[in-house]
Every structure is written in structure tokens, then in C-alpha cells.
């Protein structure tokens, strides 16, 4: 087991004891999908790719890709991105 995994286990245990949400304690992305027309990604670190068919966003554990058609970034805040369009899939890369 790598030290990185041990650290993650310890942080998760502490978060559970203190009742802190996992997305905050473990720096995980929080993704809210509204039907197939809108997705919110919290705890992002920036955009890697932006086309009408694909939006890739850096998150703490890698990347999240939103695939679809007519995709547009509705807003970008320091901790949240909103993507609108016809969403076909959301992938963790």
C-alpha cells in the first residue's frame, strides 16, 4: 500500500469522525447532473479542453470529461464550473 493511500484512509477516517463531507476533506470533485442538459463540477482546478462536443476539467484526483453536443460553459467560478448542452456522458479520466 502506498503512502498516498494511507494518507487518504487517515483523512477519510478523520472526516467520518468529525462528520466533515468527503468532498471537502478528501478534495474530491462534487458533480451535480441536472437531467442531460446541465452539469455542475465543484472543486475544480481549471479547464484542459473546451469544444462543443467535450469539456475536460482538472480535479484533485485527475480529470472529469463531459461529452455531448452543443456544450457551452455557462459560468466559471473559482470553485465551480457549469456546463450546459446535450450531455451524453460524464467520465473520470
Give a structural overview.
The structure is a single chain. By secondary structure, the chain is of the alpha+beta class. It has 2 helices and 6 strands; from the N terminus they run ααββββββ. The chain has helices at residues 3-18, 22-25; strands spanning 30-34, 38-42, 44-50, 54-59, 62-76, 80-92. β3 and β4 form a beta hairpin. It is elongated and about 45 Å long. The model has no long low-confidence stretch (mean pLDDT 85).
Structural class: alpha+beta
Summarize the biggest pleated sheet: 6 strands, antiparallel
pLDDT averaged over residues? 85
Rg (CA only)? 15 Å
Helix content: 10-25%
> Alpha-carbon distance between the termini?
22 Å
The number of distinct β-strands equals 6
Order of helices and strands: HHEEEEEE
Number of helices: 2
Low-confidence stretches: none
| Biggest β-sheet: strands ordered side by side in the sheet | 1-2-6-5-4-3
- CA-based shape: elongated
Please indicate the percent range of residues in DSSP E strands (runs of 2 or more).
Answer: over 45%
What can be said about this structure in brief?
By secondary structure, the protein is of the alpha+beta class.
Write the layout of secondary structure elements.
Elements: H1 3-18, H2 22-25, E1 30-34, E2 38-42, E3 44-50, E4 54-59, E5 62-76, E6 80-92
Antiparallel strand pairs: 1-2, 2-6, 3-4, 4-5, 5-6
Search tags:
93 residues, alpha+beta, 6 strands, 55% strand
